[in-house]
Protein backbone atom coordinates (compact mmCIF):
# COMPACT_ATOMS: atom_id res chain seq x y z
CA UNK A 1 0.00 0.00 0.00
CA UNK A 2 1.23 3.47 -0.84
CA UNK A 3 1.77 6.20 1.74
CA UNK A 4 -1.54 8.00 2.21
CA UNK A 5 -0.20 11.13 3.85
CA UNK A 6 -0.13 12.62 7.27
CA UNK A 7 -2.66 11.17 9.65
CA UNK A 8 -2.65 14.52 11.39
CA UNK A 9 -3.99 16.30 8.32
CA UNK A 10 -7.54 17.46 8.51
CA UNK A 11 -9.29 14.87 6.37
CA UNK A 12 -12.78 15.66 5.27
CA UNK A 13 -14.38 12.60 3.75
CA UNK A 14 -17.21 12.34 1.32
CA UNK A 15 -19.45 11.33 4.20
CA UNK A 16 -19.33 14.86 5.57
CA UNK A 17 -22.05 16.01 3.18
CA UNK A 18 -24.57 14.23 5.38
CA UNK A 19 -22.74 14.59 8.65
CA UNK A 20 -23.65 17.71 10.51
CA UNK A 21 -24.89 18.00 14.07
CA UNK A 22 -27.54 15.40 13.21
CA UNK A 23 -25.41 13.25 10.90
CA UNK A 24 -25.63 10.11 12.97
CA UNK A 25 -29.42 10.41 13.10
CA UNK A 26 -29.72 11.21 9.38
CA UNK A 27 -28.15 7.90 8.43
CA UNK A 28 -30.21 5.80 10.83
CA UNK A 29 -32.66 4.60 8.16
CA UNK A 30 -29.80 3.79 5.78
CA UNK A 31 -27.93 1.86 8.50
CA UNK A 32 -31.09 -0.14 9.25
CA UNK A 33 -31.72 -0.86 5.56
CA UNK A 34 -28.17 -2.01 4.96
CA UNK A 35 -28.08 -3.97 8.24
CA UNK A 36 -31.20 -5.88 7.18
CA UNK A 37 -29.97 -6.48 3.62
CA UNK A 38 -26.67 -7.77 4.98
CA UNK A 39 -28.38 -9.91 7.64
CA UNK A 40 -26.46 -8.26 10.46
CA UNK A 41 -27.48 -7.46 14.01
CA UNK A 42 -27.59 -4.11 15.78
CA UNK A 43 -24.42 -5.11 17.62
CA UNK A 44 -22.63 -5.69 14.30
CA UNK A 45 -23.10 -2.07 13.26
CA UNK A 46 -22.01 -0.42 16.48
CA UNK A 47 -18.95 1.82 16.30
CA UNK A 48 -15.84 -0.16 17.17
CA UNK A 49 -12.09 0.11 17.01
CA UNK A 50 -11.84 -2.22 14.02
CA UNK A 51 -13.91 -2.89 10.94
CA UNK A 52 -14.55 -6.64 10.78
CA UNK A 53 -14.34 -8.47 7.47
CA UNK A 54 -17.99 -9.57 7.61
CA UNK A 55 -19.12 -5.92 7.35
CA UNK A 56 -18.01 -5.49 3.73
CA UNK A 57 -21.44 -5.97 2.14
CA UNK A 58 -23.03 -3.67 4.71
CA UNK A 59 -20.46 -1.01 3.81
CA UNK A 60 -21.07 -1.57 0.10
CA UNK A 61 -24.80 -1.04 0.62
CA UNK A 62 -24.09 2.16 2.55
CA UNK A 63 -21.62 3.60 0.01
CA UNK A 64 -23.82 2.60 -2.92
CA UNK A 65 -26.77 4.45 -1.40
CA UNK A 66 -24.54 7.50 -0.97
CA UNK A 67 -23.83 7.11 -4.73
CA UNK A 68 -20.06 6.91 -4.35
CA UNK A 69 -20.02 3.26 -5.46
CA UNK A 70 -21.95 1.79 -8.37
CA UNK A 71 -23.84 -1.50 -8.62
CA UNK A 72 -20.70 -3.30 -9.81
CA UNK A 73 -18.71 -2.10 -6.81
CA UNK A 74 -16.60 0.55 -8.46
CA UNK A 75 -15.68 3.39 -6.12
CA UNK A 76 -15.93 6.79 -7.78
CA UNK A 77 -13.55 9.28 -6.16
CA UNK A 78 -14.98 12.14 -8.24
CA UNK A 79 -18.51 11.40 -7.00
CA UNK A 80 -17.16 11.07 -3.45
CA UNK A 81 -15.44 14.45 -3.74
CA UNK A 82 -18.55 16.05 -5.23
CA UNK A 83 -20.59 14.74 -2.30
CA UNK A 84 -18.58 16.80 0.17
CA UNK A 85 -19.95 20.18 1.16
CA UNK A 86 -18.62 22.81 -1.24
CA UNK A 87 -16.54 24.73 1.28
CA UNK A 88 -14.73 21.51 2.30
CA UNK A 89 -14.44 19.89 -1.11
CA UNK A 90 -10.93 20.99 -2.08
CA UNK A 91 -9.48 20.02 1.31
CA UNK A 92 -10.97 16.53 1.01
CA UNK A 93 -9.99 15.80 -2.58
CA UNK A 94 -6.36 14.68 -1.94
CA UNK A 95 -7.31 12.24 0.81
CA UNK A 96 -10.19 10.70 -1.13
CA UNK A 97 -8.02 10.21 -4.21
CA UNK A 98 -5.10 9.00 -2.14
CA UNK A 99 -7.13 6.16 -0.61
CA UNK A 100 -8.65 5.34 -3.99
CA UNK A 101 -5.27 5.29 -5.74
CA UNK A 102 -3.69 3.20 -2.99
CA UNK A 103 -6.23 0.46 -3.46
CA UNK A 104 -6.94 0.81 -7.18
CA UNK A 105 -3.32 -0.10 -7.88
CA UNK A 106 -3.61 -3.20 -5.70
CA UNK A 107 -5.42 -5.77 -7.85
CA UNK A 108 -6.21 -8.02 -4.90
CA UNK A 109 -7.74 -5.27 -2.75
CA UNK A 110 -10.22 -3.62 -5.11
CA UNK A 111 -10.89 -6.12 -7.82
CA UNK A 112 -12.06 -8.99 -5.64
CA UNK A 113 -15.69 -7.89 -5.25
CA UNK A 114 -17.87 -4.93 -4.33
CA UNK A 115 -18.01 -5.83 -0.64
CA UNK A 116 -14.24 -6.08 -0.27
CA UNK A 117 -13.80 -2.81 -2.16
CA UNK A 118 -16.15 -1.04 0.26
CA UNK A 119 -14.38 -2.66 3.20
CA UNK A 120 -10.89 -1.61 2.09
CA UNK A 121 -11.93 1.93 1.18
CA UNK A 122 -13.66 2.40 4.54
CA UNK A 123 -10.66 0.98 6.40
CA UNK A 124 -8.41 3.45 4.59
CA UNK A 125 -10.67 6.36 5.47
CA UNK A 126 -10.87 5.20 9.10
CA UNK A 127 -7.12 4.91 9.37
CA UNK A 128 -6.45 8.36 7.96
CA UNK A 129 -9.38 10.29 9.44
CA UNK A 130 -10.07 8.86 12.90
CA UNK A 131 -11.69 12.03 14.23
CA UNK A 132 -14.16 12.21 11.35
CA UNK A 133 -14.67 8.46 11.12
CA UNK A 134 -16.47 8.57 14.43
CA UNK A 135 -19.12 10.95 13.06
CA UNK A 136 -19.48 9.64 9.50
CA UNK A 137 -22.72 7.90 10.30
CA UNK A 138 -21.79 4.47 8.95
CA UNK A 139 -21.98 2.82 12.35
CA UNK A 140 -24.26 3.33 15.34
CA UNK A 141 -22.58 5.39 18.04
CA UNK A 142 -21.84 3.51 21.24
CA UNK A 143 -23.76 5.08 24.09
From TrEMBL:
<dbReference type="InterPro" id="IPR006170">
    <property type="entry name" value="PBP/GOBP"/>
</dbReference>
<feature type="signal peptide">
    <location>
        <begin position="1"/>
        <end position="21"/>
    </location>
</feature>
<dbReference type="GO" id="GO:0005549">
    <property type="term" value="F:odorant binding"/>
</dbReference>
<dbReference type="InterPro" id="IPR036728">
    <property type="entry name" value="PBP_GOBP_sf"/>
</dbReference>
<dbReference type="Pfam" id="PF01395">
    <property type="entry name" value="PBP_GOBP"/>
</dbReference>
<protein>
    <submittedName>
        <fullName>Odorant binding protein</fullName>
    </submittedName>
</protein>
<keyword id="KW-0732">Signal</keyword>
Amino acid sequence: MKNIGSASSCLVLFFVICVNANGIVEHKALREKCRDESKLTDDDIKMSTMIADHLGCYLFCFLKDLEVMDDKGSFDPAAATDAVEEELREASRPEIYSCYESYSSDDDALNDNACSTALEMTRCFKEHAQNLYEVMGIFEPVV
